[in-house]
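Figure 3 (text version): structure tokens given as input.
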């Protein structure tokens, strides 16, 4: 045996930046075995086997299982390589899409939290909001547990069909209730998103100027924020739309108790002297 043409297990592992145990495992499952095994169980890999190991490492990095790699290597041809790459390209494209979706979610979440930290609690202000789409599940007289179940079902429906986590959970309150000081009539849950979801029937929330405030605390006490918001609108002779939107800015990701949650309340401005705001 010309030792200049062979590498020990340790030498190959070091060269290819893998562990010796990895090579032992590949040998055990029949994926990649040394060309020579001496009586003393010393193992030697031919330098020509380096390219095969490189291929295994590359295919594994693409996300293929060892079983899939073994199946491909046992009957590899140029045609099957092209077929494999086409399949893996689709998988990688989906992974890239999911990563971009998660990045967008992080950016939107960060933007909302920063806006709250800059404005602070109790401040009432006007902000421009883009047009948004939303899915809604409306119901009457359900328990808190049923409410949670319906919310989870809506989320699962959207995520399973859109493969996206880029949405906000919100609730719509109506002026007819708010003006009568009914602030906890949670008869719906919505999922709010920037882009219209494909193949799903949804509602549209118009772009425009929105009168906005934040409320920190349990949702049962949210009437305090609504009273201040309505008083501000009346004082400045602002005409408001019928739908008030509630969306959590600080939620379970940032707070341990519901009392620490922060809700953004916003309502579209339909009329009034915008120059004074």
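Below: residues designed for each position.
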């Amino acid at each position: 045996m010309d030792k200049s043409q062979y590498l020990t297990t340790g030498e190959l592992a070091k060269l290819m930046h893998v562990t010796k145990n990895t090579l032992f495992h590949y040998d055990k499952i029949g994926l990649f075995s040394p060309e020579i095994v001496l009586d003393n169980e010393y193992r030697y890999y031919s330098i020509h086997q380096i390219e095969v190991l490189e291929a295994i490492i590359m295919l594994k990095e693409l996300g293929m299982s060892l079983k899939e790699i073994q199946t491909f290597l046992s009957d590899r041809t140029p045609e099957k390589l092209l077929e494999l790459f086409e399949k893996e390209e689709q998988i990688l494209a989906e992974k890239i899409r999911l990563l971009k979706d998660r990045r967008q979610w992080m950016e939107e979440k960060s933007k909302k939290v920063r806006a709250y930290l800059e404005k602070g609690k109790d401040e009432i202000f006007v902000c421009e909001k883009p047009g948004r789409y939303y899915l809604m599940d409306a119901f009457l007289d359900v328990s808190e547990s049923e409410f949670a179940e319906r919310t989870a079902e809506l989320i699962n429906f959207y995520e399973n069909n859109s493969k996206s986590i880029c949405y906000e959970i919100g609730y719509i309150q109506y002026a007819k209730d708010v003006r009568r000081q009914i602030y906890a009539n949670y008869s719906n849950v919505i999922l709010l998103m920037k882009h219209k979801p494909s193949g799903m029937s949804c509602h549209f929330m118009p772009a425009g100027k929105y009168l906005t405030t934040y409320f920190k605390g349990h949702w049962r006490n949210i009437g305090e924020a609504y009273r201040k918001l309505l008083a501000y609108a009346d004082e400045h002779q602002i005409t408001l739309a019928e739908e008030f939107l509630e969306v959590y800015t600080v939620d379970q990701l940032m707070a341990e108790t519901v009392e620490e949650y922060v809700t953004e309340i916003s309502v579209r401005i339909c009329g009034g002297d915008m120059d004074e705001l």
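Residues 107-276 form a domain with the Multidrug-efflux Transporter 1 Regulator Bmrr; Chain A fold (CATH 3.20.80.10).
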